[in-house]
Amino acid sequence: MHHRPRSGARRGLAALTTALTAAVLLAVPVLGSPTARAQAAEDVGTEDATVPSGSGADAVELDTTTYVPASATAEDPAPAVVLAHGFGGSKQSVADDARDLAGRGYVVLTYSARGFGASTGQIGLDDPRYEVADLSTLLDVLAERDDVQLDAPGDPRVGVAGASYGGALALLGAAYDDRVDAIAPQITWNSLTTALFPSQAGPVDEATPAATPDTGDSGVFKRLWSGLFFGAGSVPTGDGLLASLTGGSTAAGDGLPQIDPGSLESADVEQALTCGRFRADVCAAYQQAASTGTLTPEIAAVLDRSSPAGVLDRITAPTLLLQGTQDSLFGLGQADANARGIAANGTPVKVVWYDGGHDASASESDTEDLRGLVAGWFDFHLRGQGEDPGTGFTFPVPTGVGAAVGSVQGGNQSETAADYPGLSGDAVQRTEVPLSGTTFPVVTPPGGNPAAITTVPGLGAVTAALGGTTVEIPGQFAVFGSEPLDTAVDVVGASTVTLTVSSPTGTATLFAKLYDVSADGARTLPSGLVAPLSLTGLSTDPTAPTEVEVTLPGIVHRFEAGHTMQVLVSSTDQAFAAPAEAGVYAVGLADGASLAAPSVSGTVQGESGATRWWVLLAVLVALGVAGVVVAKLWGARRRRQLSEVEPDGEDVPLRFSGVTKSYKDGFTAVRDLSFEVRRGQVLGLLGPNGAGKTTSLRMLMGLIRPTEGTISVFGHPATPGAPVLSRLGSFVEGTGLQPHLSGRDNLELYWAATGRPLADAHLDEAVEIAGLGTALDKRVRSYSQGMRQRVAIAQAMLGLPDLLVLDEPTNGLDPPQIHAMRQVLQDYAATGRTVIVSSHLLAEIEQTCSHVVVMAKGQKVAEGTVEEIIGTGGAVLLVVQGDPARAEQVLTGLGAAVERSDEGLVVELGDLTRAQAVSALVEARVGVDQVTPRRRLEDAFLSLVGES
Asked: What are phi and psi of 441, to 5 degrees?
């Protein structure tokens, strides 16, 4: 070992990429150990040393400090504890904890991990070949000390503790080195792959409270947190650059090799500037993930190598798992997986959840309690002293969070259960909360922007304390809610729900959240947590979607009586990488789906503490740095309530309810109009000029607002700019084509304006439906009126919208084209879509439409099927085979009045039905070729609205 005078530890880079996060770090430590300063013990000495570790190109020198209590001597050696720091920290980050443990009689070794502080080397993310091997080297050092208790030669009695990066090292160290006798990892990971590429879709073992699905072949990249990780290992400038190139320091007199900058290879410089102190494979994995947002086998190999998940069955050291409820980096599911994996090996495991984590420091009293828990764990398992801490489960008492500043509820109370549910005893209890809601179209914008704002690294929990500063983008989410709760529901863990999802591409990226909605509509996102979903193999048919089991974020929260539990599923979140391609998903609830909310019964311990005003102060500082723009955006969004969606919206694509449109001059164009159109119908909107048809269609498309009443499209209000209008294709009041462009150019330009990929336009299908042929590539100025009309209809059909609205679509078409258009609209509706046609060609409406709404003077005068409007009785035209005289004789004998015409027999049926007339003719061996109403739609129309 090389001994040298103790010097101030160099600060690890905290290159956090935004001013907002930097401001939060001033008040709420994020990457280091979440402990407050402890009172130093007067009888604790320190020894600084540089410890070599590794060999060859991987050899490093670790900067260490050992804290030695006066009570530890060669005659009375003491157990040892190795304290590992968090990512971006150094040995100084755990100095207060070290003094506390040393004051309790332990020999405590702290050190800066390779690549951090004054230690040399490159960061391998707790790689078993490097960082874990370094821990074994430090255990060798402890075994050589005469003041450290030994279990055998070379085997010290030792525990390992640490938070985050240091916590994973404790787990991996216990798995790879059986000399470790007890561990206390805190706020750390089980699987780096699942943590940084989460996907909380798929079945889980619901026996434990916070079980979370493992990431499969794909996950959603946790972009902001990963960026903070990489930033913390970024290369410094000046001398720091040389230090990173040499793996050490360039300061004179520090005992490390000096370097001539002129001797550096350009490749070394590029590596240092690009990767800082990261190893090349870690750097390459991050760069690929950051640029593509995609989990590849190469990235997974790097992350899995540094994950305890694969080696938990090797851990025999009693384990105290401390995990924070305010943690958007490593959630409760990571500790749940560690607990299950370690306990399956028969190793004692105690689980403690506390009010803190990467998003918020624990309170001073909680910090002292956590130190006491760690010390008590080591006292029993290393010294055999004190009470057996057992294998129980401790968690904060669930509380709600007030929406106003200064109203944070709860304190330092906790509950303790005898066991962590599902490890060895009974499974966790779950409360079934029924949910309701229709199927929603959820839009993904191009590039995933604008994105919802929910989880901000370091801010997730403290912003939730102010009522949840979240921003959900209209049109980008589906929401499913419970009825107001009769009694409070305490959620301790991760709730589950089954959704239905379809996607045109068979894949989808979604984000599920569990909101607490108060009686006055204020929404809170507990702990600011989000569950990403990376979905593949989905149905492409919205009428037959795929069921998806979803695990919501693990939380500890009370939903008070009178509140509503809402599951919100969005297509974007600014903390995660989103697909660049735009798209529309259909998201709904599975039949009979309910929210399964876990709860745990325990004994309440501790006294209620004072309100944590320091948390509120930290939030105010953060919000100040966020700036006026974000504050205004938050204020506007927070006041906006979630739209009430009609539960039958997918079955009723269009509903007018009491709609009136009046103008300032007193003219009322539409008055108290109410009707609905169901899926698969072709509705004809009829009326003379001035009846209000076009005004009604313009209100439907959000071009103008109704004075009174509501219009809903697929259950959503059809307000100007409403995202649901993206499901509507329309052709109203002229073609709007650019004459100097070709028909194809016009169609592509129109679709480009929607911001969606050209592949989603189904251009070839729309062109084929409209029958445009080769003329599509000619300039529009050369088109006939009929050709322009067909291009406009193809434009309305781009994207194959679920609701198609056409105003006078057959104007300018010749009879064959009109006949073809009739079949096009009927076939289009047969796919489950809906068509609305406004036309003056009553004969075409009669032959094309299944339903009709007749308007006159702004009001509805009739509504029903075409047959209902025409009438089932009255005169019919019969075309018979053989002898018309025989047919006339049969019908006259039944009381009908019969006249002959060039078309056939015109029969006034009277009380006779059509079926009875046809049956009588067949029995008389008279063949019937045709039976059609003699009263046409035109007759009915004129009788309803008058000749004028």
From this structure: -80, 125
CB atoms inside a 10 Å sphere around CB 12: 24
Poorest-pLDDT segment among 311-325, 331-345, 663-677: 663-677
Average pLDDT over residues 243-253: 37
280 versus 183: the higher-pLDDT residue is 183
Listed by start position, the domains of the chain span: 19-211+308-398+411-416, 223-305, 429-639, 654-868, 871-943
User: Tokens 């300063």 map to which residue?
Assistant: 37
Which residues share a beta bridge with 465? none
> Which tops the pLDDT comparison, 163 or 453?
163
> How does strand 875-880 pair with strand 716-717?
unpaired
Q: How far apart are CA 936 and CA 502, in angstroms?
A: 43
Token pair, residue 365, equals 């009293």
Q: Which amino acid is at 73?
A: T
The residues facing 533 across adjacent strands are: 510
Cα dist from 919 to 531, 587, 766, 844, 877, whole Å = 65, 50, 44, 30, 15
CATH superfamily of 654-868: P-loop containing nucleotide triphosphate hydrolases (3.40.50.300)
Chain centroid offset of residue 119 CA: 40
Pick the more confident residue, 115 or 829: 115
Q: State the Cα–Cα distance between residues 656 and 660, nearest whole angstrom.
A: 10
> Which residue from 880, 562, 909, 586 is spatially nearest to 727, judged by alpha carbons?
586
SS (H, E, C) 693-730: HHHHHHHHCCCCCCCEEEEEECCEECCCCCHHHHHEEE
Cβ-proximal residues to 830 (8 Å cutoff; 6+ apart), any chain: 680
Closest C-alpha among 327, 342, 90 to residue 187 = 327
**Same-fold call for 19-211+308-398+411-416 versus 654-868:** yes
606 pLDDT higher than 70: no
Q: Is 550 helix (H, G, I), strand (E, B) or coil?
A: strand
Q: How many CA atoms lie less than 13 Å away from 160 in the CB half-sphere?
A: 31
Q: What superfamily would CATH give domain 429-639?
A: Galactose-binding domain-like (2.60.120.260)
Task: Judge whether 83 and 166 are in contact, CB under 8 Å.
Answer: yes
Residue 818: predicted pLDDT: 77
Alpha helices in 470-572 (DSSP H): none
**Directed axis angle between helix 914-923 and helix 884-893, to 10°?**
120
Report the relative pairing of strands 728-731 and 803-807 from DSSP bridges: parallel
* Of 246, 228, 204, nearest in space to 340 by CA: 204
Q: What is the CATH number assigned to the segment(s) 19-211+308-398+411-416?
A: 3.40.50.1820
Is residue 513 within 8 Å of 454, Cβ to Cβ?
yes
**Mutual angle of helices 763-770 and 743-752, in 10-degree steps:** 140
The CATH architecture that domain 871-943 belongs to is 2-Layer Sandwich (3.30)
Q: Name 733's bridge partners.
A: none
Within 8 A by CB and 6+ apart from 725, the residues are 701, 702, 713, 718
For residue 641, CA distances in Å to 23, 44, 474, 567, 766 come to 30, 59, 10, 15, 37
Instruction: Please say whether the beta carbons of 571 and 443 come within 8 A.
Output: yes
168 sits in which H/E element = helix 165-176
Least Cα distance to 121 among 135, 111, 131 occurs for 131
Residue 480: left (phi > 0), alpha (psi -120 to 50), or beta? beta
DSSP letter, residue 539? B
